[in-house]
Specification:
The chain is an alpha/beta fold. The chain has 24 helices and 23 strands. Strand 6 (about 160) and strand 7 form a beta hairpin. The protein is flat, with a radius of gyration of 50 Å. The N and C termini lie far apart (about 125 Å).
């Protein structure tokens, strides 16, 4: 039994034999930590009848069950009387603390018999003479009781609360009761839980057999060896020696497994293995062993290393070992601890030529260009509307108006506009617009500079079939399963070159297939990520990865460690412990490989908020201005709207009035000074009837009132 992997034993035997078993188990050190002993009710019922202290001592930590006996006053008083009687009969012997279950059942059975006899009215027994016994020499042969048939139904129907609990016979048997789960602790039995039927006995027979714990969980159990840790139930190494964990002598990268120092093996997958072992619910002792020859060189491929588990030389094999169908024939793998896939890596081809005539448009997307132009025009038009009636710089012929609409926003790009803004609303618009222009200009300049200074990557889209057709050499790591994968893809074995170190692969890729190197490197994704992190500016991933399983730990077939290790990996993955360990070792990894260094055009979404702000502010200023204008000229608006003119005539009348200068915004002194300093051409000087008008004295002539297509507005002169 001691040489078995299992550490859980169930004892179902008589009390004398069980006593000998536990004494021998104690001598064999099988009552120590890690073992589980479970006994049935036969031994638990008679536990306090064990008269040898050595037997009780050998049973420390044993777990057992027995029918549950509810505490009651009647049971307590009966126990006290029984203990007194026991002391009288057995002087010098300490009475047991309780009556065993068999004694309680016997007491309840006699009580049931007495109750049934009273119901039948039984007084003196009468028998039918057994005629076959007349010539018999057996003096114990008796006759058949005549009251027996009457007494039996009464006994079967008797129900009462006895010392052992509810006494009720179902099909001639006591009804199933709850069970106590007991733990042997020192010289007593300690209750740690109750196992009871989940449904009442009135339920169907099928449901009556359903049982469960009474309560949420068991109390803490003291196991053999005075341990409170839950035993795992089996032992990994029966001999008690440490597990021998095999590691490859030369891994793909020293960051994965570094065996330079035989006494201190390090690496990413070493730390991952240690963390997984520490996460198991039990302790596992192990030691690392390098897979090397006596001279210190590698003893073979990864397939050879995995086969050592089959031959029993290693208990576990770890490292950058990929799950393959061939290896799974002789070992069991845990779930992958690293992603799978085989990727192709090739040298980057650079192209520094900029051939596009519209290269300057690339920093911004088309939608952003169109939106900026639309906002440019909208801002210019808003400034003209806000300044036209109050600013002389915004007056003049229609051609100059159009020029101002485009001139002011454009000159804001270089902050070179000299036109004075006099309206507060226009000032708000120009401030918001300059803010947007500043950001847009800076973004455009930075992006355009990046486009000019960054070299473009010219990706080589040569597929595998073309590599095979061109007889290009390809490479992979020595001892890797990728060699067989390349043969399956169609590569001739003579065109596959193997290398041991990343530096050798770097040199081969730099030379190229024509100069004694290789055109492409095929490697598992973790290798590729680390390789590209070291040589990011020289190589890149090409094409889609080939599907394969990831890296995992290898165990002997049927090893109970596989399931627990896999659960531990899932647990450490969920709480991000594994990702943290990987970050410590591979902080420079980049799973995407070298990215195309050409900058991405800036989209409209990047400026949505800014454009919304400037559009909203500009629109709000226009609304405020128009409302103010219509309110000040409400009499004119009312007369024009109530006239019988056509719609077009009404619009012309409103436009002509809007085109006039607002006299309240000009002071004669300032205006004269301005004209003296900046003489205005004669053709640009507005006439008195056009400019020096008071909006509050406007009137419509009789001709316009009768539907004329022209409107003459006469205004009083401004003094």
């Amino acid at each position: 039994m001691k040489n078995m992997q299992t550490r859980v034993f169930v004892v179902h035997t008589t009390t004398p034999l069980a006593s000998k078993i536990f004494l021998k188990a104690k001598e064999a050190e099988m009552m120590s930590e890690g073992y589980v002993w479970i006994v049935t009710s036969g031994l638990m019922n008679l536990f306090y009848s064990l008269d040898n202290p050595r037997i009780v001592e050998s049973m420390q930590g044993v777990v057992g069950v027995k029918p549950f006996v509810p505490r009651s006053g009647k049971l307590k008083s009966t126990t006290i009387r029984w203990q007194k009687k026991f002391a009288e009969i057995n002087p010098g012997i300490t009475p047991p603390p309780e009556i065993n279950l068999f004694g309680l059942w016997a007491y309840d059975t006699l009580s049931a018999l007495g109750i049934a006899a009273e119901k039948v009215g039984f007084r003196e027994p009468t028998y039918l003479q057994n005629t076959t016994a007349l010539n018999s020499t057996n003096i114990f042969t008796t006759g058949t009781s005549q009251t027996g048939p009457k007494l039996l139904p009464e006994i079967l129907g008797t129900e009462f609360e006895g010392l052992a609990g509810n006494f009720k016979l179902v099909n001639g048997q006591l009804q199933p009761s709850s069970f106590q789960i007991l733990n042997v602790h020192r010289k007593k039995l300690r209750q740690v839980g109750i196992w009871t039927p989940l449904l009442p006995s009135s339920s169907s027979q099928r449901n009556a057999n359903m049982t469960g714990f009474l309560g949420e969980e068991l109390d803490q159990i003291t196991w053999p060896g005075k341990s409170r840790n839950i035993p795992k139930g089996w032992e990994v190494s029966v001999s008690g020696e440490k597990l021998k964990v095999g590691v490859p002598a030369v891994a793909g990268f020293p960051e994965f497994v570094n065996t330079t120092n035989a006494t201190n093996i390090t690496g990413l997958y070493i730390d991952l293995f240690k963390s997984v072992m520490a996460a198991l619910p039990y302790a596992v002792e192990y030691e690392f062993a390098r897979f090397v020859k006596p001279d210190g060189s590698s003893a073979g491929s990864y397939d050879d290393l995995s086969q050592k588990v089959l031959y029993g030389e290693y208990d576990i094999v770890i490292g950058d070992i990929t799950i393959t169908a061939n290896r799974s024939e002789y070992v069991d793998f845990s779930i992958p601890i690293e992603q799978g896939g085989v990727t192709r890596t090739q040298k980057i081809q650079y192209d520094d030529k900029i051939n596009s005539e519209l290269f300057f448009l690339k920093p911004l997307e088309k939608e952003l260009w169109l939106t900026a132009i639309a906002l440019f025009i909208f801002t210019g038009l808003a400034l003209w509307i806000l300044e036209h009636r109050v600013n002389k710089a915004f007056r003049g012929p229609a051609s100059e108006h159009v020029g101002l609409i485009f001139y002011i926003p454009f000159m804001s790009l270089v902050f070179a506009n000299r036109e004075r803004i006099v309206s507060n609303l226009a000032r708000i618009v120009i401030v918001v617009w300059i803010f947007i222009v500043l950001i847009l200009n800076s973004t455009f300049t930075a992006s355009l500079s990046a486009e000019f200074t960054t070299a473009k990557l010219e990706k080589d889209h040569t597929d595998v079939s073309e590599l095979i057709r061109n007889n290009d050499y390809v490479g992979c790591r020595n001892g890797s399963f990728v060699f067989e994968l390349l043969k399956d893809l169609g590569f001739n074995e003579s065109y596959i070159r193997v290398y041991k170190r990343p530096e050798e692969l770097d040199e081969a890729l730099s030379k190229g297939s024509e100069k004694g190197g290789i055109k492409a490197m095929f490697s598992p994704t973790p290798y590729t990520n680390l390789f590209l992190s070291k040589y990011r500016n020289k190589y890149m991933k090409v094409g889609s990865p080939y599907l394969s399983e990831g890296f995992a730990f290898a165990f002997p077939k049927g090893s109970p460690l596989v399931a627990d290790v896999s659960r531990a990996i899932i647990k450490l993955t969920d709480n991000h412990t594994i990702s943290g360990i990987k970050a410590n070792w591979t902080s420079q990894f980049n799973d995407d490989g070298p990215s195309d260094s050409s900058s991405t055009p800036i989209s409209l979404r990047s400026f949505t908020v800014l454009f919304a702000i400037t559009g909203g502010v500009t629109g709000a200023c226009l609304v405020v201005f128009l409302v103010s204008y219509l309110y000040k000229n409400r009499d004119l608006v009312q007369r024009i709207s109530s006239s019988e003119m056509t719609t077009w005539s009404k619009l012309r009348a409103m436009s002509k009035h809007f085109d006039q200068r607002d006299p309240n915004s000009f002071r004669s002194g300032e205006y004269a000074s301005s004209r003296h300093q900046n003489p205005v051409p004669a053709e640009e000087i507005p006439s008195e009837n056009e400019d020096n008008v008071c909006p509050n004295s406007d009137r419509i002539t009789e001709e316009d009132a009768h539907g004329s297509s022209s409107v003459q507005v006469e205004n009083s002169r401004v003094v």
